[in-house]
Amino acid sequence: MSVKNPGQTDIFRERVGFDQAICKWRWSYPVIHVNRGELRTCDKPPNIQITEEDLQRLGTDALLNNPYLIERRKDKLLGLRHPDCFTCIILESRGIQSTRTGKDRFVRYMNDVVGVPDDFSGPIDVEDPRLLRADHPDILEISLSNTCNLKCLYCSPVFSTSWEDEAIQFGEMRPDQAERAAKPAPASFEPVFWLWFDRIKDSLDRIIFIGGEPTINDRFLPFLEKIEDIMRDSRQAREGRKVTINVISNFNAPKHRFDRFLDLLPALSERFILHVEASGEAFGARSEYIRKGLDWNLYTSNIRKLLALRLPNVRFGFQMAVNALCVSSMEELLRLAADLQHEYRVPVDYKENIVVSPDYLAPYILPRETARYLERCHDFVERNLADPSSNPYLFPYNEPSAERWRKYLPFLKSLHHGISQATENPEVLKRFAEFIARNDERRKSDFVSVFPEFEAFYRRARSFRG
Ligand code: SF4
User: Fold this and answer.
1) Percentage of residues of the chain with pLDDT beyond 90
2) Rounded to whole angstroms, what are the CA distances from 193 to 28, 46, 304, 396?
3) Which amino acids bring their CB within 6 angstroms of ligand 1?
4) Distance, CA 25 to ligand 1 centroid (Å)?
5) Nearest CA to ligand 1 atom 1
6) pLDDT of residue 156
7) Could you tell me the distance, in angstroms and rounded to a whole number, from the CA of residue 80 to the centre of ligand 1?
8) pLDDT (tens digit per residue) in 185-216
9) What are the residue ranges of helices labelled H in 48-188?
10) Ligand 1 centroid vs 5 CA: distance in angstroms?
11) What are the tens digits of pLDDT across the range 49-71?
């Protein structure tokens, strides 16, 4: 068992107290890379690579109850922060809303799901296996492979074969599989995964398929079928509830692939509640620059095709990984969300996300004055998406879309604060300039012509290159 690319080294393991360290996602939100035998809890810490020896020795405990993850949970109970949680630590240090759940949700989870009736205000027995083990996940994220037809700036060979191919083309990686980012899983990984899935199925609220790109992955459908088969004998099925499946897609699969995915949706939506999310946080040519390989027209036309189906159990939204380059056109994307709602008379959702790594693409590297873009996004959401008189739409099960968008406002406000308080970091700007120059050279693009609003910023960043 080994941890891949451990968290940023300038963050130390430090005692901050239970209330500041605790987060239920370390217990309840596994992310499993089925094809390469890696996992993490939650979606932010580095991956742990599981070996055949781990699987033989620990069986299903090799997944969520391996010694490394038990120790990380003990850290949280002891009030220690760990560099693995660098994303939340960095965001919180900048006053930006993180995804840490905090004490109340942890206590509710322990009380209601795990069955430990403690309010965690007194001494905690950090050796109590009921507190250390994780046997009741509520969210499960699955990556079937890194097969992807795009190479988004903030992604990497680990998550995209297109990135991998580029790294091989420019000599950063050898083409033989042993040197590639996505090494195959040990032989027992998948059989153990299914054994484990059968044991934990009763606590699951949602299963999320992430990339690579699920709609071009031939294993996606067989995987869903196996999940459905196992879930037939679950608590949810006995209670007459359907499991929720999220599919995060780039909406840019070749036409025959995406149409085949759309053709499957009516039948799938009878069997599951589906949340189909389009990755994207910028608009038009800016989005095409950030998400290299993206065809904006194909992206929007695929979204329209999905919305036109108007399937009652299918919910659509944008998965917005807010980064340094999207902020100037994010308002236009939010306008698109509002326009689509009115045109198709269905709600459009969002998923909150932010790029912290690589650090040179995080939004708070920008000059303070660019915080105005976030202010405009906040005002637009407040007036048009979070206001029930402008957004009267309801998700299935009568959840108001406006109420959901209202929850995005504190994040936008905190991001505005984070950018407007940031101080210039020459080292990070230097890396930004080097990355953009290399990117333009390799991908035959021209940053300044796509982002004229960032010309002065780029010039300043380049001045640190020496
Ligand atoms: S503190 Fe942040 S990184 Fe750590 S488990 Fe919670 S959400 Fe994930």
Assistant:
1) 84
2) 16, 19, 36, 31
3) 23, 25-26, 42, 44-45, 85, 87-88, 98-100
4) 6
5) 100
6) 87
7) 13
8) 999 999 999 999 999 999 999 999 997 899 99
9) 52-58, 61-64, 67-78, 86-93, 103-108, 129-132, 161-169
10) 16
11) 999 999 999 999 999 999 999 99
> Apex CA 174: angle with CA 173 and CA 177, to 5°?
110
Q: Which atom of ligand 1 is nearest to the CA of 45?
A: 3
One-letter identity of residue 80:
L
What is the 52 CA–ligand 1 centroid distance (Å)? 27
Interatomic CA distance for residues 381 and 376, integer angstroms: 9
Alpha-carbon distance of 97 to 407, in angstroms, equals 11
**Domains of the chain, earliest start first:** 2-132 (no CATH), 146-181+205-423 (3.20.20)
Q: How far is CA 446 from CA 127, 155, 165, 449, in A?
A: 56, 19, 21, 6
Instruction: With H, G, I as helix, E, B as strand and everything else as coil, classify residue 80.
Output: strand
**120-159 pLDDT, tens digit each:** 999 999 999 999 999 999 999 999 998 899 999 999 888 8
